[in-house]
Write a structure and sequence with these properties.
By secondary structure, the protein is α+β, with helices and mostly antiparallel strands. Helices cover about 20% and strands about 30% of the residues. The chain folds into 2 domains: about 15-120, Pseudouridine synthase I, catalytic domain, N-terminal subdomain (Alpha-Beta Plaits, 2-Layer Sandwich), CATH 3.30.70.580; about 125-245, Alpha-Beta Plaits.
Length: about 260
């Protein structure tokens, strides 16, 4: 049997620390894809001289873990990524350096040393806001009541394996009307005449996305947004079932609010 080839040179440096980052996609950068952000982050890591760890093998790559990224076109205040580092750094200093190296609109919001367990396991639900310009709040409110009264609402979406039908109602923990004035992030991007849908959605398989919820509202309540909705993820993290809120996945204590 032929001897298996091994990469030349010394083995990669050991991981001594993992840091988790919360970042935002704002403005026009909400149209950047996950791959766009990956390229931007890797360039920022080089500019900021972050001691990122690399994998072994013939084609080493940065040890970066991405978790549950929002769809292209969706704004977000709560995207997460985990970095493996070859030496210990101060998370706040790292966050500031990366934020300066990233383009405006891809903004580092917070950083913390990783706690035990996988980051993806802590992302159990998302808190969403959907703003619709030109829609009357009473019309949206009536559609919400119809949605919440239904026991099951099936929607279909095309996957790589083909068309799949699933229940969009079961994943929705909370749904209500909201106002831009109640959320600081919305006052910067949402016009006062917008009707705003606020909802907490459990992460399921398959994932129930905001556009699935809009499809369900169209099916059961005839809701037809007159303009393209602006979708913003406000938070994602551990789901607090007792009060239907989303906690901060970077916090050591899961009850800390995420939005």
């Amino acid at each position: 049997m032929a001897r298996q080839r091994e990469p030349e040179g010394p083995p990669p440096a050991q991981v001594v620390q993992k840091v988790r980052l919360r970042y935002a996609k704002r403005g026009r950068l909400r149209f950047s894809s996950t791959r766009d952000f990956q390229r931007a982050l890797e360039r920022a890591l080089r500019r900021a001289q972050v001691p990122i760890a690399f994998s072994a093998g013939f084609h080493p790559h940065p040890r970066i873990s991405y978790a549950n990224a929002a769809s292209t076109g969706t704004a977000s205040e709560a995207e997460y990524v985990e970095l493996a580092l070859t030496r210990s750094v101060d998370p706040a200093t790292l966050a500031a350096a990366l934020d300066a190296a990233l383009p405006p609109g891809l903004d580092i919001v917070a950083a913390a040393e990783a706690t035990p367990g996988a980051l993806a396991d802590r992302l159990q639900a998302s808190d969403w806001a959907i703003a619709v310009r030109g829609m009357d709040a009473s019309e949206l409110g009536a559609a919400i009541e119809t949605f919440l009264a239904a026991e099951r609402i099936e929607v279909s979406r095309m996957f790589k394996t083909g068309l799949r039908t699933f229940d969009a109602r079961a994943a929705v923990i909370l749904m209500r009307l909201d106002t831009a004035e109640s959320l600081a992030v919305l006052t910067e991007v949402v016009a006062p005449e917008c009707a705003i849908l606020r909802m907490v959605v459990r992460h399921t398989t398959p994932a129930v996305r905001p556009d699935d919820i809009l499809t369900a509202l169209r099916a059961v309540a005839g809701l037809e947004p007159p303009t393209p909705p602006l979708v913003i993820r406000l938070a994602q993290g551990p789901l607090q079932d007792d009060n239907a809120t989303v906690a901060d996945p970077l916090a050591a204590i899961e009850s800390v609010a995420g939005a």
